[in-house]
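step=encode ok
step=design start
structure_in=
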């Protein structure tokens, strides 16, 4: 039976149920609940903006977007966003989803920490970012009424979420600090990893092997 929260229906297909089970098994409750909220807040924004989005694709994008922070799917040789994006594409392909649609979800996850650009792309890409920005940064909160927000948080609580998500980011990135060059996660490591030194774009230009 499908579940409805704040007027948003959670997809109840075999694909969606298996996506839910995979993330529930791999992720800590903090990341699982956050991922569900990202779907719900993203879907609310899509409804408010009148966007024609595919709920299943948005759901998988939201649910898989932080898989790269989990022990099961974490790598150390690439950005954590790509970890989740790769797993989502593999998962969707195994369920017979068209390559172009699987690539759309890959893009939604890979770009979810990149400001502004995803908001000008396909609805599912934009809405994953909107959901993340709503839940983590408090941006675009006018997309949900107080009652809708309270219903979502009642279903998927966020106790001590700000501290917890920063800790999850730190733990998931501390073994691959170079992957934070040029993106917002460098801020996390600068705050919480002693000795971390962020890369400097100007220094890379000035000190590379070109003579001038």
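sequence_out=
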């Amino acid at each position: 039976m499908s579940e409805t929260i704040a007027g948003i229906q959670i997809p109840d297909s075999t694909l969606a149920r298996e996506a839910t089970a995979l993330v529930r098994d791999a992720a800590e409750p903090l990341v699982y609940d956050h991922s569900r909220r990202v779907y719900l807040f993203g879907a609310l924004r899509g409804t408010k903006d009148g966007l024609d989005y595919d709920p299943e694709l948005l759901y998988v994008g939201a649910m898989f977007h932080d898989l790269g922070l989990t022990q099961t799917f974490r790598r150390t040789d690439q950005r954590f966003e790509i970890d989740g994006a790769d797993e989502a594409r593999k998962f969707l392909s195994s369920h017979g989803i068209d390559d172009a649609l699987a690539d759309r979800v890959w893009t939604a996850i890979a770009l979810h920490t990149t400001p502004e650009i995803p908001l000008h792309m396909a609805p599912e890409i934009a809405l994953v970012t909107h959901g993340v920005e709503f839940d983590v940064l408090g941006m675009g909160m006018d997309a949900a009424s107080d009652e809708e927000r309270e219903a979502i948080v009642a279903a998927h609580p966020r106790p001590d979420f700000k501290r917890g998500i920063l800790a999850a980011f730190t733990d998931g990135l501390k073994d691959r600090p170079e992957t934070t060059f040029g993106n917002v996660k460098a801020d996390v490591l600068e705050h919480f990893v002693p000795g971390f030194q962020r890369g400097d774009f100007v220094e890379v230009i000035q000190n590379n092997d070109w003579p001038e």
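step=design ok
step=annotate ok -> The mean pLDDT is 97.
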